[in-house]
Amino acid sequence: MKTRSQRKYLDQLPPELVRAVLSCLRPADALPLARCSKHWRDACLSDWSLWRLWYLADFGPCGISPKHVWRGRYRRAWALRIEPGKRACGLTLGEDFSAYSPRATLRTGGEAPYDEFPRRGRLTIRSGAEDLEYYLKDDDIPYVGEPDPDECHVGVELSEGDSGHVDYVATYDEDASLFDPARPFVNRAGIRPGSTLRQLLAAFRLTLDDVEDNGGNWHGPLCGLDGVDGLLFVVERHDGEDVVTESWLDRAIVSLDVVPSSEEEEEVEEGEDLVEEDSE
Q1: Dist CA 187 CA 178 (whole Å)
Q2: Is 144 helix (H, G, I), strand (E, B) or coil?
Q3: How many CA atoms lie within 13 A of 111 on its CB side?
Q4: pLDDT value at residue 140
Q5: Which residues lie across from 132 on neighbouring strands?
Q6: pLDDT in tens, 119-136
């Protein structure tokens, strides 16, 4: 427990020293630390230059902006980040879909019937309290077509039917960008839906030979990258072609899809094997 004298000492540190210390941390670590001192807390909440520094370090350049927007800009970018194998647009893999309060919007003609959750609707992400348009992906119902990317922010696939947990998130929202803690150079490249295949490969420092074919969907070929776990992407299809070649480098990425990492899938399979052994 901090004594009054210790807190007073923290409050007496020069502002430039406080800023230098906080700038070496990420917001997730700096904000709890700021509770130790009102002086530090004020720096975290009101120092726009600190939030600008954090944004540039985690998400790269974004042009000239007014001072007052940097804190909100960072928080929104963090909430919508596309983190391979983990989360996208505020949806976390493995979490119960009902936690996002999915609700129906106006149903369109030809839409499939639904059970617990609407096939098309709106959900709320808790970080940022932002509403997103979604649709539920379901390969077992062929007449549920994937909507135009301009009509929704995310496509969601559940692990156990309509009452399951989030197992797959396809991101169409161009406000969401890739965030890979192990590759900060990727984060600063600002890769998002709408970026080109060339930009994606350059961000990961890979070549066309590293693109892996994973079939296709409504919009184009579904691909992965060699050595990049938990991430798939769809390249815009032209003239019915499905084989990604050098001529595709300047085509747009339709969606960036977050899937469970191979390590998590192995853990799930091991758990299922144990259950089967116990039942025997």
Answers
A1: 6
A2: coil
A3: 18
A4: 58
A5: 123
A6: 888 999 976 568 999 988
Q: How many CA atoms lie within 13 A of 184 on its CB side?
A: 7
Which residues are within 8 A (CB) of 212 and not within 5 positions of it... i.e. 6 or more apart? 223, 224, 225, 226
**What does R_g of the chain's alpha carbons equal in angstroms?**
22
**Residue of 79, 134, 135 lying closest to 112 (CA atoms):** 135
171 CB burial (10 A radius; 0-12, 13-18, 19+): buried
Residue 210 DSSP code: G
pLDDT tens sequence across 167-183: 999 999 999 999 999 99
As a whole number of angstroms, the distance between CA 173 and CA 80 comes to 9
Which residues of the chain fall below pLDDT 50?
A: 1-2, 108-114, 142-143, 268-280
Closest CA to 214 of 190, 235, 188, 239: 235
Give the DSSP letter of residue 277: H
Residues, the chain? 280
Residues contacting residue 36 through CB under 8 Å, at least 6 positions apart = 2, 7, 10
In one letter, which amino acid is 223? C
CB-based contact 87:169 (threshold 8 Å): yes
Whole-angstrom Cα distance, residue 194 to residue 177? 10
Q: Give me the helix-helix angle, 15-23 and 27-34, nearest 10°.
A: 140
Q: How big is the CA angle at 160 (ends 157 and 164), to the nearest 5 degrees? A: 75
Nearest to 246 by CA among 199, 279, 198: 198
The tokens describing 214, both together, are: 């994973």
Beta bridge partner(s), residue 213: 223
Place of tokens 């296709």: 216
Cα torsion angle, 198, 200, 202, 207, sign:
negative
Number of H helices, E strands in the chain: 9, 11
